[in-house]
Design a protein that fits this description.
- It is a single chain.
- The chain is of the alpha+beta class.
- The chain has a single domain, classed as Alpha-Beta Plaits.
- The protein has a four-stranded antiparallel beta sheet with strand order 2-3-1-4, covered by helices on one side.
- It starts with about 20 loop residues before the first strand and ends with a strand.
C-alpha cells in the first residue's frame, strides 16, 4: 500500500525558462508622438536602474503613425518582468507590449 507523498517544494526560479539575471528585449508600440520614447525609457529605468537608453531601437510603422520601441533590460526576476509589463501595458501612450 502506498501513501500519497507531498510534492517537493519548488524553486520559483526553476519555473521559468529564463535564467536570471539576463538581458531581455521588450517591444513596445504606441502612437508616434512626442514623449513616447521618453515615457518608455522612464518606465524601463524604474524597473532596471542600470538601463542603458543608448540600446533603444526604434522602428516607424509604414505610414509613420506608430512607433515600435525595443528596450533591452537586465531581467532579475519573473516578478520584475511581470511588473514592468503591467506598467507598460497600462501606460496611456502604449498600445501593445510584446
Amino acid at each position: 500500500m502506498t501513501t500519497p507523498s507531498t510534492p517537493p517544494a519548488t524553486d520559483p526560479r526553476k519555473d521559468s525558462l529564463i535564467e536570471y539575471p539576463s538581458r531581455f528585449p521588450i517591444k513596445v508600440m504606441g502612437a508616434n508622438v512626442d514623449g513616447f520614447v521618453h515615457a518608455v525609457t522612464e518606465l524601463a529605468r524604474r524597473f532596471d536602474p542600470g538601463f542603458d537608453a543608448s540600446s533603444i531601437e526604434l522602428r516607424d510603422s509604414r505610414a509613420g503613425n506608430y512607433l515600435g520601441v525595443t528596450i533591452t533590460i537586465t531581467a532579475t526576476s519573473r516578478e520584475q518582468l511581470d511588473d514592468l509589463y503591467r506598467a507598460l501595458s497600462s501606460h496611456p501612450m502604449v498600445k501593445v507590449v510584446l
